[in-house]
Amino acid sequence: MQQLQVFCRIALAVVLAFWAFAANAQSIMEPGGWEMQVRITAQDPETGVTKTITESTIKQCLSEAFLKKDPYLTPVIDKEKMIQKGATCSLSDQVRNGDSASWRMSCKLADGSKVDMSIKNSASRHKFSSDMRQLVTKGDQTVPMQVAMNAKFLGKCTPDMVQAQ
After folding, report:
1. pLDDT tens column, 117-130
2. Among 164, 161, 113, 154, which residue's Cα sits nearest to residue 134?
């Protein structure tokens, strides 16, 4: 169980690196307030049972300027965020088709852990979804994880919403 907690911390660090960018898509998505529901699951290496690690909902304000950066459909920005956290990453299998994108990214983290990710995202004016499948390896153990995000447009931004940066 302790190993699963270590893997969860690694995965959470990876998720946080993506979270600020995961719900953003150029001008396909409407600027304003968005509600994002995130669910992270992991397979326990000892039992093989998949467990929900965390479920959360965040309300975020996405400005027009922020959405024009295209971080959602451009994996290079995800890679840059990981590099800022001390990881060395490579990208492959990049596919972009209209309002959908997918890619693979492999990163070696500063602590020697490795994360291999397969990311599939799609967006529309008022909806967004992301499916990130990860294999997190630390030492001789590998834990499969999934980060699933669904977002919906709420309307105008409110003061209580997190500002996307």
Report:
1. 999 999 889 999 99
2. 113
pTM for the model: 0.76
- Which domains are present in the chain? 2-163 (2.50.20)
Q: Is 32 helix (H, G, I), strand (E, B) or coil?
A: strand
Q: Contact 20/66 with Cβ under 8 angstroms?
A: no
Within 10 angstroms of residue 57's Cβ, the number of other Cβ atoms is 10
CB 105 within 8 A of CB 89: yes
Whether the CB-CB separation of 30 and 152 falls below 8 Å is answered with: no
Task: Characterize the bridge pairing of strands 114-123 and 127-138.
Answer: antiparallel
Let me know if 116 is exposed, middle or buried by CB neighbors in 10 A (0-12, 13-18, 19+).
middle
